């Protein structure tokens, strides 16, 4: 009887230990806080689901959730097509390809707090290139006083910062397509749009799924950049869910409601990612079945 060597599982032990300390134990602590009223470090009262009910009835949470969903949808609608277009326009080989890859990746190397500082200066109407240019063109631009300007500035900042990630993922996917597909397309006289529609886009489906999920999760947890740029204002125009949670936990020191909200926050992200993943999977299967049916 052939035996299987199980010693390879020992390599997984460090990962399990790290995950236990970095994820499981903090999650258990948060769950413990979410069902207690922490009056003092020595005095705690069990309240059950009281904090969950209170958080779900919070109108500020509802506003922050709507604001967050709109922001994440806008991020996906802009960054995914823009990233694909950027990847298609990048050189395929040679020193130009290496140079372009480095230039495209520069924004990804900048720390999040520095990104917020850069755009904080960039958007000023007195010394910032963006703010001064818009003011010179006659636009009444003020990201510190106008809610719409602030929201759009945060959106443009995120597009500038993270579109290169989508572009690099798509570029890697394009380079992985065998040249035989392009040769067959040239023989058939396919147009560039037909090559993109029937060769490149289907082959990029797996890469795009990863890109969409990564960008959705990251945009849904955005905190540092808008906090540095606008502080969540003016008013609550750029107060997203992560900043709302921070205000609860750190600003007001409401550990119970903050813990309850953090669990709800986690479940919202998990649910939306699950729905988004299954929707993309079904769209891909539907397109594959349609192509198979029509030869």
How many strands? Answer: 2
Tally of discrete structural domains: 1
Q: Helix proportion of residues, in percent?
A: over 70%
**What shape does the CA trace take?**
globular
CATH topological fold name? MetI-like fold
Rg measurement, Å: 24 Å
Q: What's the helix-strand series?
A: HEEHHHHHHHHHHHH
Distance between the termini: 48 Å
The number of helical elements comes to 13
Proportion of residues in extended strands: under 5%
| Low-pLDDT windows of residues | none
Largest sheet: 2 strands, antiparallel
Describe the structure.
The chain has 13 helices and 2 strands; from the N terminus they run αββαααααααααααα. By secondary structure, it is mainly alpha-helical. Strand 1 and strand 2 form a beta hairpin. It is 72% helix and 3% strand. It has a two-stranded antiparallel sheet. The protein has one domain: MetI-like (MetI-like fold, Orthogonal Bundle).
List the helices and strands and how they pair.
Elements: H1 13-34, E1 36-40, E2 43-46, H2 50-56, H3 59-89, H4 95-105, H5 112-122, H6 129-136, H7 147-175, H8 179-188, H9 192-203, H10 205-220, H11 224-229, H12 241-251, H13 255-293
Antiparallel strand pairs: 1-2
Summarize the model shown:
This protein has helices spanning 13-34, 50-56, 59-89, 95-105, 112-122, 129-136, 147-175, 179-188, 192-203, 205-220, 224-229, 241-251, 255-293, and strands spanning 36-40, 43-46. It is mainly alpha-helical and 295 residues long. The protein has one domain (56-293): Orthogonal Bundle (MetI-like fold), CATH 1.10.3720.10.
